UniProtKB/TrEMBL annotation:
PANTHER family listed in its UniProt record: UNC-93 RELATED, UNC93-LIKE PROTEIN
Protein name as it appears in the record: Uncharacterized protein
Organism from which the protein derives: Stegodyphus mimosarum (African social velvet spider)
Origin organism lineage: Eukaryota, Metazoa, Ecdysozoa, Arthropoda, Chelicerata
Family: Belongs to the unc-93 family.
Keywords for the protein's UniProt record, in alphabetical order: Membrane, Transmembrane, Transmembrane helix
InterPro entries in UniProt: UNC-93_regulatory (IPR051951)
GO molecular function, one term: potassium channel regulator activity
Gene Ontology CC, one term: striated muscle dense body
Swiss-Prot/TrEMBL GO biological process terms: regulation of muscle contraction; regulation of potassium ion transport
Spans through the membrane: 5-22, 28-45
Region forming the signal peptide: none
Amino acid sequence: MTIMVAALICHIGLLMVLWLWTPVRDDVAVFYVIAAGWGLCNAVWETL
């Protein structure tokens, strides 16, 4: 149950970042961080 809540909070946080963030040309690393975080949260959901 705790892992599910952590994954839920992670997904909500990532969705908020994607909703509020305005991409800039110099923020290339942010794309990779978001993708890695999304993959981590998705892996938690897939293992349940």
